[in-house]
Write a structure and sequence with these properties.
It is globular, with a radius of gyration of 28 Å. Strand 24 and strand 25 form a beta hairpin. The strands form eight sheets. It has a six-stranded mixed sheet with strand order 11-16-15-14-12-13. A five-stranded mixed sheet has the order 18-27-26-21-22. The protein has 790 residues and is an alpha/beta fold. Pfam families: Fn3-like, Glyco_hydro_3, Glyco_hydro_3_C. Its main location: secreted. Keywords: Glycoprotein, Glycosidase, Hydrolase, Secreted, Signal.
């Protein structure tokens, strides 16, 4: 280039381009590596990228609302449409990276098999702490435990992101549905059948995973550690049963059941938990697809409950609205239906494929799209993804040393211990003596299969301990035979199992179900143990020297009346799917190093309950047709084990110490003049001040009558006289607390009960009402009368 005395415009342009390119490469380098040479996660608004720092959406001093509005205003229509799906495209000109909305964290950071998620475990981080499946964790009845679990999950999720091994921070958990029917394959993902229990679990989980305090209200400026999502909204509890599938099922739900069963957990998840995400479910409710229901998504969730966040469809749910459900008349109508209903992002490609033509046909306006994008970018901003280098921000110090820590794995063990339910313990067979048990036979297809411990929606665990491994750590001379090839148990090696049983001091059978019998898209058609399991158990029990111990791994209930009534089966434990440390927890309980305290979060029905169609959504019984109702609140038939049942190695006694008020007069508390009604008042007519004054403080003394220390959930119920007929629950849970007591120790627990919330039930039109009459607070075998006058 020597001899040139000045630069041409072309050379000037080239130099300028080279400088810009160098800056971009530098910025990319800053984003791609830490000092320790692993990639940084994707983020926007880095200080080394001068092309974006001047944009208002990068200005952290502005509100999230202002920033999101600015960002959306800069997008072209095509760019906007590219953001309406879970695989949100990068927008390089604005420094916005690719984002994956779909990540899973049901009971540990997880993956959805066969699809790309925000977390994939396919790089240097290969595991995360795997807690028990939710149905078992719920059996602990311990909101503080649930919070601590979720806090660990959120910490590990953010740590994986900080390590550059995640492209999404929006986790589609918790499952907030009611376990309505015992055959449901996904019931294992839920906290059970009770709305209060499910709501409290959701609140604890959301607060923990999002980085809030246990009490709530501590998210500074709405900043999220990760984002939680209440799913599947709403009345979703059937996957695939006898040719009826979730994709086209039209759930007929009464206003009454919607108001006091299906919706309350979601209301709690949003109002108290402050969840930043909601997933609308596949199914229709009363003829309207959930993702196209304006009353549900906008009027109820955003309007009545104050939801602030994004709403995603379940995967490919939008396509069904036209293609299978025939609710919409065209692709473009389906797009319009969901965007105008209030849905924001489509899991799948449907909106990417059909939104532009919907705009061109005038069925969707750009403002409909802008509304959705505002919600989407607001959540990404609350996650700190538009605040520059995450290592310099809150949570930026988390990394691989915060994953699978000893403390996290100890918590997984604690959760499994506290959830396991002792269903039978004849003649105090359990715990077995560590010193006197010289030989042990372990039999069963679930005794040594690590993956069965995890349940569904699980990530790769830090490590696993199977029941066989756990038991071997107590008894050196432990022999094992699976008894069957797998849980289907189409044929059983009975003679070999019997021979083994005869040779040992004690026998532990580990039986039950697995994900081949109950899972997503797989509901059960029976409530019994599969194949030859029952006959194998009975034969082994008959041959054994002493009564045997039966351990059940399953999510949904199984009719084990044969074992309950067989004196040769001395102990029965339900261990759900107990997570990575499940085998150790089971062994510790069997040998007395932990005192079981779990209580069933659902009713265990007899096997003939399958005569009730799974498609019947009614909660309340109908004596005229013989319909028995559902869940402990309404079901009036025989039970194998009831909700809240659970034994211990000690006994606990209760006494009501004080009840602050036992006569509640609501006649003078109405906010409106109203004609005399027959025995009830609408809760909406009672002022919030009056509801506050009506709150009842209940103190219960609990005594551990035995010698062994234990954690014990104290469950407080309201039991009604039947003046409300079949419309009123037989009883309902109004509070629960965990107490730890040493042998012979006494302790007190205090419940604050709000009659407006806890004593109400829905009328036929969905209005929450309080009924006149005598009712009872019940804990264990103790009851305390409460009189309500309306």
């Amino acid at each position: 280039m020597r001899g040139f005395t000045h630069t041409t415009p072309l050379i000037t342009a080239l130099i300028t381009y080279s400088l810009i390119l160098a800056i971009i490469i530098k910025a990319a380098a800053d984003q791609s590596t830490h000092d320790d040479h692993h990639p940084l996660p994707p983020f926007s608004c880095g200080s080394t990228n001068p092309s974006t720092t001047s944009y208002p959406f990068c200005n952290v001093h502005l509100s999230v609302d202002e920033r999101a509005r600015d960002l959306v205003s800069r997008l072209t229509l095509d760019e906007k449409i590219s953001q309406l799906i879970n695989k949100a495209s990068a927008i390089p000109r604005l420094g916005i990276p690719y984002y994956q909305w779909w990540s899973e964290a049901l009971h540990g950071v997880a993956v959805a098999i066969g699809v790309e998620n925000g977390v994939s475990f396919n790089k240097t981080i290969r595991a995360a702490t795997s807690f028990p499946q939710v149905i078992l964790t719920a059996a602990a009845f311990d909101p503080n435990l649930w919070y601590r679990i979720a806090k660990v999950i959120g910490t590990e999720a953010r740590a994986i992101y900080n390590e550059g091994e995640a492209i999404g921070m929006t986790f589609w958990s918790p499952n907030t549905n009611i376990f309505r029917d015992p055959r449901w394959g996904r019931g294992q993902e839920t906290p059970g059948e009770d709305p209060l229990l499910t709501g409290k679990y959701a609140v604890s989980f959301v607060r923990g995973i999002q980085g809030d305090s246990f009490e709530g209200g501590s998210l500074k400026d709405g900043r999220l550690q990760v984002s939680a999502c209440c799913k599947h909204f709403t009345a979703y509890d059937l996957d695939n049963w006898k040719g009826v599938d979730r994709f086209t099922f039209n759930a007929h739900v009464t206003k009454q059941d919607m108001a006091d069963t299906y919706q309350p957990p979601f209301k709690s998840c949003v109002e108290e938990g402050r969840a930043s995400g909601i997933m609308c479910a596949y199914n229709l409710v009363n003829g309207v697809p959930n993702c196209a229901d304006y009353d549900l998504l906008t009027k109820t969730a955003r309007g009545e409950w104050g939801f602030q966040g994004y709403i995603t469809s379940d995967c490919d749910a939008v396509s069904l609205i036209y293609e299978k459900q025939k609710y919409a008349k065209s692709h473009e109508d389906a797009v319009a239906d969901v965007l105008k209903a209030g849905m924001d992002v489509n899991c799948g490609l449907y909106l990417a494929n059909h939104t532009k033509s919907a705009v061109e046909q005038g069925k969707v306006s750009e403002s409909d799209i802008d509304r959705a994008l505002h919600n989407l970018f607001s959540v990404r901003m609350r996650l700190g993804l538009f605040n520059g280098n995450p290592s310099q921000l809150p949570y930026g110090n988390l990394g691989r040393n915060d994953i699978c820590t000893p403390e996290h794995q100890d918590l997984a063990l604690e959760a499994a211990r506290d959830g396991v339910v002792l269903l039978k313990n004849s003649a105090k067979l359990l715990p077995l003596s560590k010193s006197k048990t010289k030989s042990l036979a372990v039999i069963g297809p679930n005794a040594n299969v690590a993956k069965t411990l995890l349940g569904n929606y699980a990530g790769p665990p830090c490590k696993t301990i199977t029941p066989l491994e756990g038991l071997r750590s107590y008894v050196k001379k432990t022999k094992f035979h699976p008894g069957c090839e797998d849980v289907n148990c189409t044929s059983a090696a009975t003679s070999k199992a019997v021979k083994l049983a005869k040779s040992a001091d004690y026998v532990v059978l580990v039986m039950g179900l697995d994900q081949e019998r109950e899972s997503e898209e797989l509901d059960r058609v029976d409530l019994v143990l599969p194949g030859q399991q029952q006959s194998l158990i009975t034969s082994v029990a008959k041959a054994a020297k002493k009564p045997v111990v039966l351990v059940l791994l399953c999510g949904g209930p199984v009719d084990v009346s044969f074992a309950k009534n067989n004196p040769k089966i001395g102990g029965i434990l339900w261990a759900g799917y107990p997570g990575e440390a499940g085998g150790k927890a089971i062994a510790e309980i069997i040998f007395g190093d932990h005192n079981p305290g779990g209580r069933l979060p659902l009713t265990w029905y007899p096997k003939d309950f399958i005569n009730i169609p799974m498609t019947d959504m009614r909660m309340r019984p109908d004596p005229s047709s013989g319909y028995p109702g559902r869940t402990y609140r309404f079901y009036q038939g025989e039970k194998v084990f009831e909700f809240g049942y659970g034994l211990s190695y000690t006994n606990y006694s209760y006494k009501f110490v004080s009840v602050s008020q036992s006569k509640l007069n609501f006649k003078t508390l109405s906010t409106t003049d109203r004609p005399e009604q027959s025995g009830y008042i609408s809760v909406a007519e009672i002022s919030s001040e009056s509801c506050e004054k009506a709150k009842v403080s209940v103190v219960v003394r609990v005594k551990n009558e035995g010698k062994m220390a234990g954690k014990h959930p104290v469950l407080l119920f309201l039991r009604r006289d039947h003046q409300g007929g079949n419309a009123s629950p037989v009883k309902q849970l109004v509070g629960f607390q965990k107490v730890r007591l040493n042998g012979k120790e006494k302790g007190s627990v205090e419940f604050e009960v709000s009659p407006c919330e806890h004593f109400s039930r829905a009328s036929e039109d969905g209005t929450l009402v309080l009924e006149s009459g005598d009712q009872y607070l019940v804990v264990g075998d103790q009851k305390y009368p409460i009189s309500i006058n309306v």
